[in-house]
Amino acid sequence: MTAPVLIKVGGALLENAAALDALFGQLASIQQSRPVMVIHGGGVVVEKQLAAMGMKSEKKNGLRITPPDQMAVITGALAGTSNKQLLACGLKSGLKAVGLCIGDAFTVDAQIMDPELGCVGYCKEDGSEGDADLLKLLVGAGYTPIISSIAVSKEGQLLNVNADQAALALCQLLNAELVLLSDVDGILDGQGQLIAEIDQAKADQLVADGVITDGMAVKVQAALSAARTLGRSIAVASWRHPEKLEDLLAGGAVGTRVLG
């Protein structure tokens, strides 16, 4: 099987119907020559649903604190609303899209990360405790998995895993090419200018300087880990320019290349 491309999306993209249509149109084109998978977050949807329920939302070091009494709402927002919205876009574009979560068939094995974070899950970045059989079966038959980052522990507990970290685990499981899409053109320096390439030392300096923070810091660390393990660069780019995605996958100078 040709190595699949794994696209991670989330954030404001889920509220931009035109951008979703454009992105999935490009993914349908890519699917003609290689398997495509999508993994997503959905922080915007989570925030709205928690607010509608009168629940407070907090983050720590870029990770959403997930009290047990919020887990049902967050699961519904991510594995339900966000996942099925993306599924509908995929089907509309002509993809044989299938909606999943990383907990299905224990594709990604997860456990509690830190009791202080509540039901936030941790998964081994090398994917060593996951099971790729379901995804291999689907992509081998021409389906496009659209995957939320809701996991299930061995004890049967639902867990909220950061989507960038979940993307890394999936990438390792299937030796996939990973592209992390956000609402900015890539990783930016202190003047807001695009950084063409970044390695661990440069990333550490930007974190120390307070340039890379919160969710972007989690994203960059996930990309660095993937680049080291897979021995190839990882792309961080914008979903606002889906027409550049095929050029990016061909090695073009699009977004930021994260080096191992």
Q: Can you offer a commentary on this structure?
A:
By secondary structure, this protein is α/β, with parallel strands linked by helices. It has a single domain, classed as Carbamate kinase (3-Layer(aba) Sandwich). Helix content is 38%, strand content 21%. The protein is built from eight helices and 14 strands. The strands form three sheets. An eight-stranded mixed beta sheet has the order 5-8-2-1-11-13-14-12, sandwiched between helices. β1, α1 (17-31) and β2 form a beta-alpha-beta unit. The longest helix has 22 residues, at 71-92. The model has no long low-confidence stretch (mean pLDDT 90).
Provide the CATH architecture. 3-Layer(aba) Sandwich
Mean pLDDT reading: 90
Elements, N to C (H/E) = EHEHEEHEEEHEEEHEEHHEHE
Helix content: 25-40%
CATH H-level superfamily: Acetylglutamate kinase-like
Work out the number of β strands.
14
Strand adjacency order, main sheet? 5-8-2-1-11-13-14-12
Overall body shape: globular
- How much of the sequence lies in strands comes to 15-25%
CATH third-tier fold name: Carbamate kinase
Main beta sheet, described?
Answer: 8 strands, mixed
Count of individual domains: 1
- pLDDT under 50 segments (min length 5)? none
Rg result: 17 Å
Structural class estimated from helices and strands: alpha/beta
Distance between the termini: 25 Å
User: Number of DSSP helices?
Assistant: 8
- Kindly provide the name of the CATH class: Alpha Beta
Protein name: Acetylglutamate kinase
Family: Belongs to the acetylglutamate kinase family. ArgB subfamily.
Organism: Corallincola platygyrae
Keywords: Amino-acid biosynthesis, Arginine biosynthesis, ATP-binding, Cytoplasm, Kinase, Nucleotide-binding, Transferase
